[in-house]
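Please go through this protein, sequence plus structure tokens, and consider how the sequence yields the tokens. Keep your notes short.
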Amino acid sequence: MRYELLIASVFIILFSGFLLPTANLAGTHGPLIPLIPIVVAAGGHPMAFGLLIGAFGLVLAISKGGSMLANLTSKGVCGGLLLYLGFVGTASQVKKLFAWAEGIGMSHIAFVVIFCTIILYALLEHFRKRWLAVPLSCLLGGTLAFAMGAPFSFQTEPGLPNMNPMYWWGEDTGWMLGLPTLEHFMVVLPFAILAVAMWSPDFLGHQVFQKISYPERTEKVHMNIDDTMTTASIRQTFGSLLGGTNFTSSWGTYIVPAAIAKRPIPAGALLTALFCIIAAIWGYPMDLAIWQPVLCVALIVGVFVPLLEAGMEMTREGKTTQSAAIVVFSSVLVNPAFGWSLTMLLDNLGLVGCKERSGELSKMSRWVLPGIMFIVLSSVMALVGLLPGIPAIIPSFR
């Protein structure tokens, strides 16, 4: 974790801070996390996986494919995606907090912390101070839990990680995996394609939330999807070569609170990088940051509830609710990437949502590009066994 924080900080400063100020910070690929056990079981290698993600991401960024797909996505599809991500994320964090509380034999702590967080968030909404939600909720959650007897102690002492890439990719040191072979690259190929395909809906949700939250005449400082893909791809490539095993995406836990506070990306990026370096070297702040009463409430009020609000805001007018409902339905069936690609195709064809919008699109925008994206995504998911009830086409993934 220390090594990943230091790697991330360097690229945050270099790109989001200076070279590409419209690129959101490169964080962790949240939707990919449930797939990691499948990749490991199939014999995947993290270095091969990371390098392929970086390569495919650069191709998409250079070809402007990310922004093109974003432009083909209607408000209804965007809103539905935000609603799904917001609800699933909120539910998962509540479940995690209760699981942690039950594990220490104090289930009531989770209820009290979440109840008080709801009241605090409502008051901040009322007084239009929602930008204070993350720090105050973290302080409230941690203080309440500790006061009610939840165990906590600082364990991570100050220090630096081993920053020699050959240590991490050695056969008997670091991850003890050695360097990847051609077979490793073949094994992770479908997952790398899927990981980069998942970037578009992930980036789109963050961009839309920022656009909704920022004031008028601030278009020049909005997050750019292609710039963010470039940054994420380069950070992924070099991070993997250096020995890191984080798989990156747009940093939602940065852009959502930053958008609420109506602050530009570069200044916040520099502060974030500075705090990451301090936490990595000092060590003790890392223990506090991952303590469940602090972490869960921060994610709930800082990311997932705001996504719910933005999704509901986007589906208030016209026939956007039709598309939003299909996105949620199909995302529950498989995952958000499948739900986004399927609904984008149906929406652009005019089968759901605004038929007038469909009529104004060119043939390429109406069904060719959305159709290709849906077929590619569905095919990759079928190959690796991610379509529910359907065995993987490639035997090694079964």
